[in-house]
Write a structure and sequence with these properties.
One of its GO terms (molecular function) is DNA-directed DNA polymerase activity. By secondary structure, this protein is an alpha/beta fold. Helices cover 53% and strands 7% of the residues. It folds into three domains: 174 residues, 3-Layer(aba) Sandwich (Rossmann fold), CATH 3.40.50; 30 residues, no CATH class; 135 residues.
């Protein structure tokens, strides 16, 4: 992939190009933003631009055909270190940072980034799933962040600033990635074959909240049907707790044995619920300020669900915000590998209590 293929985040691109032109590029970055908006792809393109020996780094325009570019695309470049949390783990293992016990500080990211670059330019490390660094893992990384090796760059990728440990936030320059605009997301949906027509691409983009990951999931006909039934169940005057929990669990389990895909589905379920409670909260806010508010323009299904929930609601704006926040907390708990059945049961019980249903 080249920058010309990349969609969105032009402001971030220009910022890096300006920093490189002025020789003011930092060494430790924290890329944060929602899942599926392009953070990891941006990090890899940045690494490709800096490692390409056919062009100057200040141009931020890799040639795309040299050996360095080919190796970055294939994830085999010796000066590019990439680590992420294994699917079966709740936290990023410290062994990926400092090596196995018998090889402490003789392997792992902190060791590898300290070695001289093979290509003569710099070493670059991309640490994905930074949200899952625990205190022990963060402590292993601190010295490297505080005293980075010469000509090295470390990029941590995570979902949000508040989900990072304070010791990590204070030592990295944060680069925030916003959700993609709807036209940008529609373009990607069509380009990647997620939808075959502009109308379907528009419908998916309206629901996906700027996330390509979410768009891929929503293109699934089964999930589209599930969304309608979930919003209907959550908007009723009385919540059928056992039915909702069982319904959500079955949809997550339908992903099969792929743990990452199952977690993606579970997070999507909570985001579907969050969109409903966000709409209810906005509607209450509009009523209190006597402002006109049409919830979820372009998403008739969600609009109807919000209106139905407002009709049946008993808790007020504060309750809607509490339910919204509980959904966001549940998403974080999925990333921590919380037990699915227990998580769903606790989530829907809390939502029922907050909304007094």
């Amino acid at each position: 992939m080249q920058w010309s293929d990349f969609v969105g985040h032009q402001q971030q691109y220009e910022w890096f190009r300006t920093a490189l032109a002025g020789n003011r590029l930092a060494t430790s970055f924290l890329f944060v933003g929602p899942e599926g908006v392009g953070k990891r792809t941006f990090a890899r393109l940045l690494a490709k631009s800096l490692l390409c020996n056919a062009t100057e780094p200040q141009q931020l325009s890799p040639c795309g055909v040299c050996e360095d570019c080919a190796q970055v695309d294939a994830s085999t470049h010796p000066d590019l270190i990439q680590i992420s949390k294994p699917a079966e783990k709740a936290y990023l293992p410290i062994e990926l940072l400092i090596g196995e016990r018998e090889k402490r500080m003789r392997e792992g990211l902190c060791h590898d980034i300290s070695m001289r670059p093979y290509g003569g330019r710099r070493k670059i490390a991309i640490l994905d799933d930074a949200d899952t660094l625990n205190v022990e893992g963060a402590n292993c990384l601190l010295k490297t962040l505080e005293e980075p090796p010469l000509d090295s760059i470390i990029i941590l990728v995570g979902a949000g600033l508040q989900r990072q440990l304070p010791t990590i936030r204070s030592r990295c320059q944060a680069i925030v990635f916003r959700p993609l605009d709807q036209p940008q997301l529609e373009s990607l949906i069509l380009r990647q074959g997620i939808a075959e027509s502009e109308d379907v691409a528009r419908e998916i983009a309206q629901q996906a909240e700027g996330s390509l990951t979410e768009a891929r999931l929503l293109a699934d006909e089964e999930l589209k049907e599930f969304r309608g039934s979930l919003l209907n169940l959550l908007s009723q005057a009385r919540l059928a707790l056992a039915e909702i929990s069982k319904h959500c669990g079955a949809m997550a389990d339908a992903a099969g044995k792929d743990a990452r895909l199952k977690r993606d589905r579970l997070k999507l379920i909570f985001r579907m619920a969050a969109s409903l409670y966000r709409g209810v909260a906005y509607s209450f806010s509009a009523l209190e300020s006597q402002a006109a508010h049409t919830p979820s323009v372009g998403d008739p299904l969600l609009s109807r669900a919000v209106q139905e929930a407002m009709h049946n609601w008993k808790g007020g704006a504060a309750a809607a915000i509490a339910c919204w926040q509980r959904c966001l907390t549940a998403i974080e708990q999925v990333d921590r590998n919380a037990n699915q059945a227990s998580l769903l049961e606790a989530w829907i019980t809390d939502v029922a209590a907050h909304s007094q249903r």
